[in-house]
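seq as requested:
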Amino acid sequence: MGNAFFLQGGDCAKNVKELSANNIRDKFRVMLEMGVVLMFGGHMNIVKVGRMAGWVRRAW
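struct tokens:
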């Protein structure tokens, strides 16, 4: 077992109506770029986890 850095990002409480393919793609790209910087700077593996639309409200 080795060590790794856990990188989590995204909009945890974003309204589903505000999500789009471009929005998700841009956030995914930023996460990948951050992972590369951390990997080369910290010399360790990076576990990347994205949270998109973590909370979805329901109308009762």
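Residues 4-52 form one domain.
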